[in-house]
Amino acid sequence: MLPRSSLWFALPCAALLAACAGTPYQPAVLNGNVELPPNLIKNGRDVMVRQRLMDVTGSGGAADVLSEQFLNNPKRTPVVYALTYDRRAVHAGGHYEVDSQVYANGSLRMQGTTMLTGTDAGLPATADVTPQPIAP
Questions:
Q1: 75: Cβ–Cβ under 8 A, 6 or more apart, which residues?
Q2: Burial tier of 77 (Cβ tally within 10 Å: 0-12, 13-18, 19+)
Q3: For the chain, which ranges sit under pLDDT 70?
Q4: Which residues, other chains included, contact 15 with Cβ-Cβ below 8 Å and sequence gap of 6+?
Q5: Helix (H, G, I), strand (E, B) or coil at 109
Q6: How far apart are CA 30 and CA 65, in angstroms?
Q7: Model-wide pTM > 0.85
């Protein structure tokens, strides 16, 4: 038998474990391409592509980032990405965005987004993005 002081610690821990077990992580992957101008990659620049999957369902305020990936110095275009996210975070009718930011030599050069709508099955399997140049 456990001492009474141990029960005060064991019971909350057991309740926490039971709550976590009821909501397992459900991995899902969103794949896609980011179309870049070939000269951006071939000019010997230090290029980084930042991909984010965001929940933009709420009104105003900051979007929730569901997944993020950094692709450094891609060798060819289109740049292929794969964003892993928790399927439970996607809701039917919800609004989601794939955001691409392209940095060259440390400066933001291009940005683009693709909008997605959640369904009962989650998000589409693929979403391509064509970023546009940022005015200097």
A1: 41
A2: middle
A3: 1-22, 44, 59, 136
A4: none
A5: strand
A6: 14
A7: no
